[in-house]
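pls read this protein.

:::
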Amino acid sequence: MEHQALALEAARESLVLLKNTGGVLPMEAKSSLKVAVIGPNSAATSTMQGNYHGNAPYLISPQQGLQQAGVQVTQVQGCDIKCTDTSKFSQATAAAAAADAVVLVVGLDQSQESEGHDRTDISLPGNQSQLIDAVSAAAKGPVVLVVMTGGQVDLTAAKASAKISAIIWAGYPGQSGGQAISDVIFGVYNPGGRLPYTLYPADYVNQISMFDMNFRSKPGRTYKFYTGEASYSFGDGLSYTTFSHEWAVDMLSTSSMSTSQLKDGVSYRVTVKNTGKVLGDDAVLAFISSTVPGAPMKQLFGFERVKLAPGGSKTIFFDSPAETFASVDAKVEQSVDCSMLCVGGGRGALRLVAV
């Protein structure tokens, strides 16, 4: 039981809520609620383990997780992962039209990405995007898109679609993934995960050669150097509550720091407060940005995840050795420069507390 609880905790904490239009989530798990769970990963079990895994004795699929919530569940696959056969799309759209809500589970599996099996396309495989369009058009209620994948896939269209109410990035969530997904959808657990990589548009593979290992080659690689418009960026993630971040003293720029201060490093602190109405986790990400040509646009230098009840607060510290302020340019030369420090995905001033 202890191991099962740990697997569920890990799965819950890894889920990332990327979109939640109008606060459609969480839903109320009423026995009268009719939910259609659709898509190639809607009944996935072993897929949730990714690769390099042991034999999990308890695998809870998204379908099973929703059923355990006590709602009325109809499951239709629509197509397999390759999604070249669209003959069962009509079953999927019929189920969507008859349901109060739709959970659409798409993504990849080990037939698409694995050791020795690289992808040349970062779109969803086959006609999965067309399945999303068809199901969301037929649905009469909210559509929750769950993306189960290891590598990134383009979610530009889903992000922009008014018919997709919510998006949950699930990764490969392990043996309790289905229960974790259900818990987030029905508010048993408040999501607090952050996206572990940047989601590029599908055309990205045509803009830069995968054999070019220069991270600065236009349009750049990773959140540090990518200058294009991402579907979602590293560190993105929503919650069912809200948080505020307060700094203790006025901002002190690095231009006013003494050499000895930079050598010894500095310690920053921020007070995080849950300003919403439900218990929640805030994964506080601390970034530094630089004006040095060729240096990363921003770079993570610290993070901490805190769980807070409504109205609760906690002060956390980010200790920053001198190396934090050193930027490496395109010529692999180091210099000390800092134009801004910020928390989360946004840009804001970080205020110095102790030197």
